[in-house]
Amino acid sequence: MAAYLFGMTDAGKVRDNNEDVFIAEEVMNGQYIIAGVIDGVGGYEGGEIAANLTRDIILEELAVVSTDITTQLEIAFNLANEEIISRKLGNQDLTNMACVATVAVLDKKNNLLHYIHVGDTRLYLFRDNSLVKLSHDQSFVGFLEDSGRLTEEAAMIHPKRNQINQALGVASRMGMTDVYFETGSSPFLPGDMILVCSDGLTDLVDKAKITALLNGNVSIQVKAKQLIQEANDAGGKDNITIVLAKNDKAAVVHEKAMPVAKVITDIHLPQDGLSKPNEDILPQVKQEVRSVNKPKNNSLLYLFSFLSLAFLCSSIWLYLDREAVKNGTAMAIDNPSTAVIDTLKPQEKLFNDMLTKIKGDTLLLNDSVFKSPVLLSKAINITTDTLLIKAIGNIVFKRDSAYKGPAIILDPGSKHISIDNVVFEGFDTAIVSYNNALDLKNTRFINCKLPVQASFLFADSSFVNGRIAKK
Fold first, then answer.
1. Distance (Å, rounded) from C-alpha 307 to C-alpha 460?
2. Please, what are the domains in the chain?
3. Which backbone phi and psi does 194 adopt, to 5 degrees?
4. Minimal CA–CA distance to 176: which of 307, 82, 53?
5. Tens digits of per-residue pLDDT, 368-418?
6. pLDDT at 357
7. How many CA atoms lie within 13 A of 376 on its CB side?
8. How does strand 408-410 pair with strand 374-376?
9. What is the pLDDT of residues 163-208, one digit of tens each?
């Protein structure tokens, strides 16, 4: 495999068969990468059959990647689901067979990833030495962990850890809910890496250890082997499967600012009276010091120009202010009691500060920091090209009683803004979006008259074809 893509699976230390399979393939001349892990369920034969069926169907459907990757992934999962159910009919040995799966499609050209997930396999994004879990375990224990009600350590040893709520091959399409499969998208920037893995890893190796190993200065092949070894050293109770994929484009590195050279104006001469400075060098050094310290003639010109401009501006301002007083339209700032002061609520200011100072394209919000709802007194304007806002725990944006506008306004130039696990409450319009740039995941709208207002901009007199998706 390439240096930026590697997958491997191991039976572990307890089980003598392996029901896991993985996908680590490049398609369409390397424009896209398919990275996935499929964990079979249902016994020695059934789990392996379900996992391999799913793998084959996914690769067949994604041999040519379409522009709507998420829909294509959903079609592949639905086809796999129906095929597993069909194989179970009339074969009692396969009655319980099913599988859980997580599959990501990496768009290398556009630096994006799209994924689909069902069950308790996992997808992580590793960026700037931080590990972020993008998928959510579809199990009761997984819900408790993701919502912060259960620590990672407690979840790893919970007796119901492996009791999943959803899987491929459990229910036909008619019996599924609209949110049966979890889908999402995220920026996949140069230097980013994803980890797709089965619960054989995450049940035994905690996030901190995984992060430390991924941060090592070794190849992704070695990192994958180290992760599997770590799980086996912890007991190897289940099959362990790992796929690592990296965006190997060169990361943008800014040149370090160099300090300005310091001019030395103090020349130390011998004081012992026995030696004298070199008579040839001293005049030259003195001349260089004088030339450095000598003010340039145009400095006075710059200063005079600046003062003249300042005087002109102040004169114009005084004139306009005097005319305003005459007309009874003096600005409110002349009267402190009527001046409008732009003040933000504490939580609102904290969020805006985080948004302003963010480095990269991922903004993580934790309810240990935002312990109460974020009351908005003005709209949050997002002007970046790509941004992932992901909440850990319960994060609520709520309209302040005096505010009537939207919670978030996306810039028309934004291309991919993803909001994950956030609640919006009490807005007439919660989010204003343009050109289908908005991607919502696990987002709730409570008492919002219009959850999302989406506008599309087209060139004047152009022909437009297509339809607007439901969600």
1. 48
2. 5-246 (3.60.40.10), 346-455 (no CATH)
3. -110, 150
4. 82
5. 788 889 999 899 999 888 898 998 888 999 998 888 899 999 988 888 899
6. 81
7. 25
8. unpaired
9. 888 999 988 766 676 678 999 999 999 999 999 999 999 999 999 9
What tokens were used for 284? 């030259």
Specify whether the CB–CB gap between 389 and 424 falls below 8 A: no
**pLDDT for residue 99 is more than 90:** yes
What's the rounded Cα separation, in Å, for the pair 85 and 97? 9
Which residue, 153, 154, 155, is CA-closest to 136? 155
Q: How far apart are CA 221 and CA 208, in angstroms?
A: 20
pLDDT cut 70: percent of the chain above it: 77
Total-model pTM: 0.59
Q: Are 393 and 368 in contact (CB under 8 A)?
A: yes
Closest CA to 184 of 380, 469, 441, 435: 441
Tally of CB atoms within 10 A around 220: 23
Q: How far is the C-alpha of 139 from the C-alpha of 120, rounded, in Å?
A: 7
pLDDT tops 70 at residue 68: yes
The Cα–Cα gap between 225 and 219 comes to 10
**Per-residue H/E/C for the chain:** CCCCEEEEEECCCCCCCCCEEEEEEEECCCCEEEEEEEEEECHHHHHHHHHHHHHHHHHHHCCCCCCCHHHHHHHHHHHHHHHHHHHHCCCHHHCCCEEEEEEEEEECCCCEEEEEEECCCEEEEEECCEEEECCCCCEHHHHHHHCCCCCHHHHHCCCCCCCECCCECCCCHHHCCCCCCEEEEEECCCCCEEEEECHHHHCCCCHHHHHHHHCCCCCHHHHHHHHHHHHHHCCCCCCEEEEEEECCCCCCCCCCCCCCCCCCCCCCCCCCCCCCCCCCHHHHHHHHHHHHHCCCHHHHHHHHHHHHHHHHHHHHHHHHHHHHHHCCCCCHHHCHHHCCCCCCCHHHHHHHHHHHHCCCCEEEEECCCCCCCEEECCCEEECCCEEEEEEEEEEEEEECCCCCCCCEEECCCCCEEEEEEEEEECCCEEEEEECCCEEEECCEEECCCEEEEEECCCCCCCCCCCCCCCC
Q: Do residues 387 and 363 lie in contact, with contact meaning Cβ atoms separated by under 8 Å?
A: yes
Residue 347: CB atoms within 10 Å: 19
The Cα–Cα gap between 168 and 176 comes to 10
